[in-house]
Amino acid sequence: MLTFEDIKNNEDVSTYITKADESLCALGFTEHSFSHVTRTAEDAGYILETLGYPERDVELAKISGYLHDIGNLVNREDHSLSGAVMAFRILDHLGFSAAEIATITTAIGNHDENTGVPVNHVSAALILADKSDVRRSRVRNEDISSFDIHDRVNYSVRKSLLKVNEEKTLVKLKLTVDTKYSSVMDYFEIFLGRMKMCRKAAEKLGLEFKLIINEQQLI
Questions:
Q1: Helices (DSSP H) in 144-183: which residue ranges?
Q2: Which residue in 44, 186, 23, 21 sits closest to 126, CA to CA?
Q3: Buried b / exposed e along 25-47 (16+ C-beta atoms within 10 A)
Q4: Residue pair 130/160 in contact by the 8 Å Cβ criterion
Q5: Quick one: which of 151, 57, 69, 58 has its CA closest to 109?
């Protein structure tokens, strides 16, 4: 069976990720390239592995995370849906089984907070991993004076950590935010919908979701 590493080393996949990120760069979005999709893949896999899911499910979560943003190549709007269709073709061409293609495309098609729902454990892990990737290094704009709110919020996050507790009862997103660049209220202004989705995703996995910013629990 093909693995996450096989997908990472696939030249076509690399091209789609690169071109999708170039499109978002032209639109002024934060980084959605290999750094983001790799981190998303690893965190999604970490969640399911920590919760004791089968090794193959962990692999599928990683693959979902790595492919989840290729739909931005088509258009930012409904990118989760176009990404799922693109992933279907890629995986079918590579010989994945129908069941595994269904799992991965379902996860990708449900990762956007405007339309998505954590319908299974793989999609839930992808949602948590994707929505938790907030960090300074995703900001492309080098001129701080011209930051928009998304730039300010991402730039203000000096450290982020997604962690399942030892009892496997909750998942925490811990952020260290430099309020010199952005307030906690700014974070909620643009990410409240994502945090609500994370809570639903955590519940799908039998977990409680907690958001902790500067050592203070906010959700």
A1: 149-156
A2: 44
A3: eeeeebbbbeebbbbbbbbbbbb
A4: no
A5: 69
* High-pLDDT (> 90) share of the chain, %: 98
Q: What average pLDDT does range 139-150 have in this prediction? A: 94
Computed on alpha carbons and rounded to an integer, the radius of gyration of the chain in Å comes to 17
CA distance 117 to 204: 10
Type of residue numbered 215 = E
User: Is residue 92's pLDDT more than 90?
Assistant: yes
Instruction: Please report, as a single letter, which amino acid is at residue 146.
Output: S
Q: Left if phi > 0, otherwise alpha if psi is -120 to 50, otherwise beta: which for 165?
A: beta
Query: Distance between CA 53 and CA 206 in Å, rounded?
Result: 13
